[in-house]
Design brief:
Distance between the termini: 20 Å
Length: about 270
Amino acid sequence: MHLWQAALLGLIEGLTEFLPVSSTGHLILAGHLLGLGGEGAHAFEIVIQLGALLAVVVHYRQLLRAHLSGLLRREPRSLDLALALLVAFAPVAIVGLGLRKVIKYFLFGPAPVAAALVLGGFLMLALPRLLCGRERLEGLDHVTPRRALWIGMGQCLSLWPGASRAMCTMMAAEIAGLSTATAAEFSFLLALPTLGAATAYEALKSWKLLLATVSLPAMAIGLLTSFFVAWAVIAGFLRYLAHAGLAPFGIYRIFLGGTVFILLVRGSL
């Protein structure tokens, strides 16, 4: 892997991990176009998620520090948030481990990614109309274990590359009654156990293969690029959600998925 390819993949990861457009789907398409395949390349794509994960930690450092202190003091508010994150993480951990090989075999390709992008785009456009007039709850205090379980079940759908972890968790949270801003914030925090577990698992499983196929400078460039870009995206996306909705991302998904299908039919991809 060339250094510019590592930087490009880090840029794509940082841009797409926390937006409802699917980072895994974009990385699969980018890897296909760049001619990067094999387990080493796939391991690299997972490991650069560490950069995005660190961006969440840095952006929410004050909130995390406060809740970690609250956990030590056994404050109900911090205990409730920790329980909600654990409940939301559990379903994807169980399903992901059980179906990991099946998902990689059947869904890691341009066509399945394109289908997930288009389907998710239409769902994103339809959801605001379906939820029109419903009360939206603001604040992480409203993420009860029951709502967290619903969000966790939604996150399982993101195991289909192209579906998007951010989209699935945010849509599930909105259906559960949370506001778009609160849904996004919980989705970002849920990335900590989800991406952390995926990164640790892939690193332990494939570190020898990764070191044999990707240089340390390439890994460093990918991680740093992912970190700084993801940090900027988190802050910008939260500001955007303060006055706008998710419809533009749904339109983008449909356009991108449709383009991929056209290229596949023409034999250009």
